[in-house]
Amino acid sequence: MASTNRLPFSRSFALLASIALIAGPVAGVTEQAYAQTQNSGAAAGAQPPATPNNQPPAASPTITTNPVMNAGPASVADLASGLLDAVVNISTSQKVKDEGNGPATPKVPDNSPYQDEFKDFFNNKKDDDSNRKVSSLGSGFVIDPAGYIVTNNHVIEGADDIEAIFPNGTKLKAKLIGTDTKTDLSVLKVEPKHPLTSVKFGDSSKMRIGDWVMAIGNPFGLGGSVTIGIVSARGRNINAGPYDNFIQTDAAINKGNSGGPLFNMKGEVIGINTAIISPSGGSIGIGFAVPSELAEGVVNQLRDFGETRRGWLGVRIQPVTDDVANSLGLSEAKGALVAGVIKGGPVDNGSIKAGDVILKFDGKDVEEMRDLPRVVAESTVGKEVDVVIYRDGKQQTVKVTLGRLEDSDQAAAASADKNKKPQLAPDDKGNGDGVINPDQGDEGDDGMDGQDQGGDPQQSPQAQPPVQATSSILGMKLSTLTAENRKSFGIADSVDGVVITEVAPGSAAAEKGLKPGDVVVEVAQEFVQTPSAASEKVASLKREGRRNAQMMIASPNGDLRFIAVALE
Questions:
Q1: Per-residue pLDDT tens for 528-560?
Q2: Which of 164, 377, 494, 545 has a C-alpha 20 to 30 A away from that of 87?
Q3: Alpha-carbon distance 333 to 422, whole Å?
Q4: 34-48 as b/e: b if 16+ CB within 10 A
C-alpha cells in the first residue's frame, strides 16, 4: 500500500504565524492559488429525506438575495486605471554601522610567509568599511497634487534618504514632514515639476463587513500591483498601539504593501495597509489597515503642524468586568472605569472622579475601555464636550474641556515633584489631595495622615490617631494604618485607608490577587478608614443582596485599581 505523506501544516502555522509589519526588502517567490466554490444544494435527482408520520417537512427560513449584488464587481480595471498614478513606491536607505559581526583577524604564526599579507588586508582597511547601506521598500500615496505623500512610519523610520518612485519611473527625493508612532503614520513631501495625481480619503465608518475593497501597493518590490477583496472584519485590536481599530481585509497584502492605500469602490482611501498575519511573510488573506476615520485627522495634523495634537482627558482607566458591573448595579459590562485622575489634568476639578464609569463621550458610545482613549485623542484640544458617566447608581452628564495629550507628561512630572503625591482623584468631599488621602494639610513627617501633629506632646485625645483595630472580611485581615505597619509594608504616607495584613489562601480576596500590604481605600464607593467601617459596609451589601463588593485598592506606592470581590 502506498504511503501517505502529510505536511504538519497546523503545527508549523501555529509556530510561525505572527503579526508582521509589511514593509520589507525585495525578496520571495510568487505563487498563484485558485479556489472554486460548489453549490451545496441537493444533487440533481436526489430525494428529500423522509419525515415521520408522513408530515410535510418544516419550512426553512429563506434569505432574499440580489444576484447582481452578490456577483461582485465584474472588473475594477476602470477604477484602478485612475488611481495607479497616485500610488508610489517608497525607497529608503540607511547607513548601519557594523558591530564586529564579520570575520575576526586570523592568528598567523610569527615568521609565516603570509604574515605581512594578512596584516595588510585586515589592519589597513578604510574606516568607511565599518558602515554599510541598508535599503528597504514600501508604499505610499499622494494626497495633494503639490506633493504630499502618506505612508507608514515603519517604512521610513531611521532612514537617511527617502525617495518616492512614481509609476512612470520618475524618482523624487522626499522630505519627512511629520510622523506619529502611535498610529504608525508619516507624511512626506516631494517637489514635483508638475501637479501630481492625488487621491482623497473616504469615510471608513460607512464600510460594512463584506464590502468590496481594492489594495494598490508595492509587494516584494515588484512595483504597482492591484488586488481586490472584501472587508473581513472591523475594529480589530492587534496590540500595535494605543488606538488600534484596524480594518481587516482578505485583499492580498504582502511585504512592501506597507503604507499603501485600501480603496472602496468609489476610489476613496478608507484604509492604510499596515500589517498582516502570515507564517511566511506572504499573504494568507489576513491583512490590517488603519481606518481613514482615524488616519485622516492624524495626517492633517502632521501636514499642518508637523506633529499630532490630541485631546487629553487626564484619567486612568480600567475595564468594566461583569463582576464590577454587578457590584455597581450596571445592567451590563460596558464603558470605562475611572481608576484615577491625573493631578493638574482637565478633570482635576472633580467633574470626573475615581469610581465613575464613562459610558459616552461627546455623543459617542464607549462600549469597552479601549474605545475611550481613541475617541478622546480624536477630539479637538480645548473643546468642551459632554461626558455621560455612571455614578452612585445613576447616569449623569458632566461637561469637560479637553487638554492636550502632550501636556500630560508635564502634569505628571509636576505632580511627582510636588511632595511626591500620587496622581489621584478628589474624594467625595472635594478634597484635592485625592481619594486615597482625603485629609488635607498633612505636611509633617510623623507617618500619619490627617493634620500635622507637630511636636507638642500635650495634645487632646481627639487629636491622637485612632487605636489600632483589626477585623476579618472576605478572607483578609484588615488593620488600621499606623506608622509601624506603614514602615513594615513600605506604604507611602499619601496612601490612606485600611491595610491588608493577611490573606487566606483560596479565599475570595486571594482569587482577586490581593496581598498583604495592599490598602483598601473604598468599599462600594465609600471611603473607609477603619476595619470596622469596611466590615460594616460589606455586611450592608450582603443585606442588599449584592453578589460582589467593589473595592478601590491602593498598592503600597499609591497606584490605584478597582476590583470586585465575591460576597458569597
A1: 889 988 888 888 888 888 888 888 898 898 888
A2: 377
A3: 28
A4: eeeeeeeeeeeeeee
Closest CA to 28 of 280, 398, 328, 265: 280
Pairs from 130-133 (Cβ < 8 Å, separation ≥ 24): 130/97, 130/98, 131/95, 131/96, 131/97, 131/98, 132/95, 132/96, 132/98, 133/93, 133/94, 133/95, 133/96
**Catalytic center residues:** 154, 184, 258
The residue type found at 210 is G
Instruction: Please check whether residue 563 is in contact with residue 551, taking contact to mean a CB–CB distance below 8 angstroms.
Output: yes
Three-class HEC string of 18-50 = EEEECCECCCCCCCCCCCCCCCCCCCCCCCCCC
pLDDT band (50, 70, 90) for residue 3: very low
Cα separation, 199 vs 137, whole angstroms: 21
Interatomic CA distance for residues 268 and 261, integer angstroms: 9
Strands (E), 279-332: 287-291, 311-312, 315-319
What single DSSP character describes residue 211? -
E strands, 367-485, where?
384-391, 394-401, 403-404, 470-473, 476-480
pLDDT in tens, 72-96: 678 899 999 999 999 999 998 887 6
d(CA 454, CA 37): 84
| Whether residue 473 has pLDDT greater than 90 | no
The distance between the two most distant Cα atoms of the chain, rounded to a whole number of Å, is: 106
Side chain identity, residue 64: T
Contact status, residue 548 vs residue 412, Cβ threshold 8 Å? no
- Count the helices and strands in the chain (H runs, E runs): 12, 29
Average pLDDT over residues 10-19: 41
d(CA 261, CA 278): 20
Q: Are 180 and 302 in contact (CB under 8 A)?
A: yes
pLDDT band, residue 518 (cuts 50/70/90): very high
Pairing mode, strands 185-189 and 148-152: antiparallel
pTM summary value: 0.60
The pLDDT assigned to 56 comes to: 55
Contact 372, 317 (CB under 8 A): yes
Looking at the predicted structure, is the pLDDT value of residue 430 above 60? Answer: no
Rg, Å, the chain Cα set: 32
Query: In angstroms, how far is the first alpha carbon of the chain from the final one?
Result: 63
User: Region 1-10: what's the mean pLDDT?
Assistant: 40
* Phi, psi values for residue 409, rounded to 5°: -65, -40
